[in-house]
């Protein structure tokens, strides 16, 4: 397990190893500022192009990444994102895991509902990004942090 | 500070977004546009997003808010040039840009704003 950036203690969610069987490469990137979100979008776009995702799927994945990165920043107080290259022998994919040490999400079901927000946004971040990817998992513990894992496979 | 340029053409304001916008930049543009509508007595705002390969909920909200603020200030807003992949993603995300006029390109956007003789 790669060490957390900035020596911060990362929320030890089992989701962090969610992609391990299919993982061929992992990059850890910080999520501390607006600029980090823009940098992440660029990295995700590059990965998506590298495995020849269609333009629509690229756009969906990058948009989901942007939404989730903003959540990490805004609600989690910043954190780390792991960008995983995936391959299971038959297909290739891009995996992203967002992790923060924020307050956690008390009611996941409610947070996934469209239009629900505590931050003055549109409330589309979680529920909306779930619709844009192929796999979506979330692990959140009050007082410890939140981890969100998404995967987009090449069709 | 980083800013997106706003051009004035008669009573229209033109904006072409050509950079990958972070959230602060989007907010600055929204503020700048509302200020310029009043200062330049603009009647129309045309926002060209053909170079944007992503419109997420934050940028979408900025666009909706700008259009709403412009309307209150007696100006119309038209968003032009959205890429097909961006449109598909926006709708799936759940954003419909309610209340925002759109056109396929700058020429059609100008026509919507009543400027056919440019």
From TrEMBL, chain B:
This is Anti-anti-sigma factor. The lineage of its organism: Bacteria, Pseudomonadati, Pseudomonadota, Betaproteobacteria, Burkholderiales. Pfam families: STAS. Residues 2-113 form the STAS domain. InterPro entries: Bact_StressResp_Reg (IPR051932), STAS_dom (IPR002645), STAS_dom_sf (IPR036513).
